[in-house]
């Protein structure tokens, strides 16, 4: 099942007299529960693509379907609700607040929209357990290692039960051991909870954890590499 469908998504910015094309009529589907890595040189449109999928940016033209709704047609209010309920973000810095505890950080998105935390408590406990940080809930973020912080960021994101997780170079600040650990956790969680993950990375090794690699250049998808059944070694390159 496709959770996301982009149809002719076109984006341009007008800074000078001639508009600059940022995304050139992108058509692409993303399946539920799969992990996608977006690669490509700086300026190729990766962040723009992520922001359009997350409903942060509206394209100039095209359709952006997320879980049965065309984001391009939604009001700002509906779009805000959809972002909150269906889209999770993980940033490079993890955007955790250092002088709040693990628990306070994880519940922050829920508290910010003045929702009751009670319905989330069971899921919270099980996430802490599966991420191995159940003993850390009252510890301040600044007291945690980088590896533990990344688990908190994953827990905070998963607590909201998003359909999609968008991550823009999430492993950029991690060493290779923590990078591997992050990808193992994220891919395992995506499969377990049937969440689609789209992550931007410059690192071939990080990308090899994904089910599919999307290469971008000058606002176009140039290649899709779909991982074969035999794992990372068996990458099938298919020209679009
Ligand atoms: P990437 O993430 O692959 O490095 P981006 O999506 O950030 O690429 O940017 C793609 C292009 O769009 C770049 O040339 C960038 O300068 C341009 N761009 C991004 N955001 C804006 C903006 N708000 N206004 C004008 N140009 C922008
Ligand atoms: Mg970028």
Automatic annotation (TrEMBL):
It comes from the Bacteria. The keyword Transport applies. Keywords: ATP-binding, Nucleotide-binding, Transport. SUPFAM superfamilies: P-loop containing nucleoside triphosphate hydrolases (SSF52540). GO terms for molecular function: ATP binding. CDD domains: ABC_MJ0796_LolCDE_FtsE. Residues 4-239 form the ABC transporter domain. Signal peptide: none annotated. PANTHER family: IMPORT ATP-BINDING PROTEIN (PTHR24220). This is ABC transporter ATP-binding protein YxdL. It comes from Paenibacillus pseudetheri.
């Amino acid at each position: 099942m496709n959770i996301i469908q982009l149809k002719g998504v076109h984006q341009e910015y007008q800074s000078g007299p001639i508009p600059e094309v940022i995304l050139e009529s992108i058509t692409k589907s993303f399946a539920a529960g799969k992990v996608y890595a977006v690669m490509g040189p700086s300026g190729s449109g990766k962040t723009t693509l992520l922001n359009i999928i997350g409903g942060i940016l509206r394209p100039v033209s095209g359709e952006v379907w997320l879980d049965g709704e065309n984001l391009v047609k939604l009001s700002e209010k509906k779009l805000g609700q959809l972002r909150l309920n269906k889209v999770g973000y993980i940033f490079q810095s993890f955007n955790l607040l250092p002088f709040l505890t693990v628990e306070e950080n994880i519940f922050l998105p829920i508290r910010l929209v003045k929702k009751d935390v009670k319905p989330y408590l069971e899921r919270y406990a099980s996430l802490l357990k599966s991420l191995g940080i159940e003993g850390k809930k009252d510890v301040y973020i600044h007291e945690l290692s980088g590896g533990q912080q990344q688990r908190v960021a994953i827990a905070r994101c998963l607590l909201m039960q998003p359909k999609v997780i968008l991550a823009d170079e999430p492993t950029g600040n991690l060493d290779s051991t923590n990078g591997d650990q992050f990808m193992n956790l994220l891919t395992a969680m995506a499969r377990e909870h049937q969440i689609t993950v789209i992550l931007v990375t410059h690192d071939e090794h990080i990308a090899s954890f994904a089910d599919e690699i999307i290469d971008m250049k000058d606002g176009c998808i140039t290649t899709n590499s779909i991982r074969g059944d035999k794992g990372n070694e068996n990458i099938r390159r298919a020209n679009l």
